Each structure stands twice: as C-alpha cells, then as structure tokens.
Amino acid sequence: MLAIAAGVALCISACQPSTKTNQPEESSTPKTTVQNVNVPVFQADSAYNYTAKQVSFGPRIPKTPAQEKCAAWLIAQLKPLADTVYIQRTTVIGPKNVSLPCINIIAAFNPAATQRILLLSHWDTRPTADQDAFNRTKQLDGADDGASGVGVLLEVARQLHAQKPTAGIDILLTDVEDYGVSEEENSYCLGTQYWAKNPHIRGYKANYGILLDMVGGRGSRFFMEGGSQQYAYGPMKMFWDVANRLGYSDYFRYENIGTSITDDHVYVNTMAHIPTFDIIALQQNGNFVPHWHTTNDNMSVIDKRTLQVVGQTLLEVIYRQPFEY
Question: What keywords were assigned to this record (predicted)?
Fold first, then answer.
C-alpha cells in the first residue's frame, strides 16, 4: 500500500499517486437559486439490498461468469427506471498486455435538460485481496469498494424515476476499474478511460460529475481529496456544505489531509474535461480504510447509516440546488 502522510499523493482504489500540476479550472456554470421542492427520502434499506445483491454474484472480476451475471442484473434494474440505457461492450488492455472484457452501463434521466450532472461508480472488484494480512491471493467481495457506490446510485435511479428532477442526470457504472498494478498508473480505471475517449453520446458534456467509491463502510469519513479540489472545488464544496447542513458533519469533513488520489475522476477531469470530484472514505492520516483490498471488504462492513448520509445528500443536491456553487 502506498498510503503516505499528508501533503504527499497516495495510492487508492484506482490507486496511484497523482502527478497533476495544472491549476483548478474556472467554472462557467450558471448560478441558480435553491429550489423549493420536496426532496425524496433516500431509502437506505434499498441501497443496502442493491449492494448485497451485487456481492451475491461473487467477485465481479473481468473474464468471470460473475461479471456477465452482474452486468445483466444491473441493466435489468436500470432499464425500467431510466429514459435511456446505453451499454458499452468493449475490450481493454490490462497489465501484462492481457485483454479484458469491459462492460460500461450508462443510464440517462431527463435527456432534454441541457444542464446535467454525471454520477459514476465502478462495479467490478479487484482480482485478489492484495492488502490482506493473511492471504493476498484470495478473492474479495468488494462490498464497499465497488458495490456500495453502485448500490447508492441504483437507489438514486429509483427516486429519479419516481420524481423527475429539473436537472439532467446521467449514471455511469464503469467496469475494469480495479485490475491495475501499482507500477503502471494508467492500468487502473480502464472502463472510465474508454468512456472518456468514447462517450455514450458524441460530444457529451455535463456541468460536473460526482464519483462514489467506497461510500458504505461503517464510520466512514469523507475528506476533500486534492485532485477533486483542483478540478471541481465549487461543486465539491457545495456538496460538503449541503451534507453539513443536513447534520452529517461527522461524515463530510473539511480538514485538509493533503491527499490526492488517482481514481476514475482523474480521467473524467483530464480526458472528458468534466469537473468531477471523488467521494471516498479515508482515514484522518490519509491512509485507506482498514478493509481496503482485503477479504474484510464484505457485507459486514456495510452500514445503512453511511449509505443514507451519502444518498440523502446526493438527492438534496440534485433536487434542491443542483448548480448552486
């Protein structure tokens, strides 16, 4: 694990030190007023069940039956909810020149809206628990690292279908995020890299994006990641402010721990040029949460309260102040 003290980049779920040096981009997003609407209530039980269902397929590793079974289930969940579902099936090249099947799934809501938010999470699992204290060759469930973010977004999709938002929302579930090796920074996030080069709609743009990665663990703390501040500080600060206003200050922290992460949001920022921030659980010292890339990343670490905090904040932003930053 390359988890280092504050002020130095660390390695995380896509997980290599960030080398970006350019300054934050100025946002041209128009300001809007906070909308007086009834915000749906996020159902944590639903998000928990969505998470558990993904885990039930077994590790969602490329080239395994679990990959195909889980992909088919995800598509089946989204098709009745979204206005349009796009499926990207391709082959990406992983470490040691291995060919890997990749299935990206995109669900579009309110497609006529010109002002849009991109929500994304990866749904694959790392091939082995390479940070495990006892057996680093074993497979892991990836309940938090992968399934929790997707579980939250599936529940959000259910709410978007029930109550149409004024903003356009696109949910991107990316594959082959966690197959990489530390020696090759760009060997991670292969599904997102493919989508950034080949978006589901030609010339696709969103005002900003929100990445969910490890958002279900008990006692999670979410700090403002360095690359997210660099590229998407405005919408990220708005999200943190909303979470704190809702009473979730124990989860969404303002302390600067000096940590930058190479995760899916890096490629959305640098390749798709959509300002995107990462919501990901870290420890105060900048290290990963203890279950990261271990066999302990199973349903026992998933907490409905954490899912509720992240999901309700997301709905509050989407329905009440999607572009107020």
Answer: Acyltransferase, Transferase
User: What CATH number is attached to the domain comprising 288?
Assistant: 3.40.630.10
Q: What is the DSSP string of 271-292?
A: TS---EEEEEBB-TTSPBPTTT
Number of neighbours of residue 70 by Cβ within 10 angstroms: 27
> Range of 139's domain?
44-206+217-320
H or E element in which residue 245 lies: helix 226-245
Return the number of other C-beta atoms located less than 10 Å from residue 113's C-beta. 16
Reply yes or no on whether the pLDDT at 6 is more than 50.
Answer: no
Contacts of 131 (CB under 8 A, 6+ apart): 1, 288, 292, 293, 294
DSSP state of 79: T
Residue 32 resides in a domain: no
In this structure, are strands 99-109 and 168-174 parallel, antiparallel, or unpaired? Answer: antiparallel
Please report whether residue 39 resides in a domain.
Answer: no
| Digit-coded pLDDT (tens) for 200-240 | 999 999 999 999 999 999 999 999 999 999 999 999 999 99
Distance between CA atoms of residues 284 and 279, nearest Å: 15
- The model's pTM is 0.92
Residue 105 pLDDT greater than 90, yes or no: yes
Segment 49-67, tens digit of pLDDT: 999 999 999 999 999 999 9
Domain assignment present for residue 35? The answer is: no
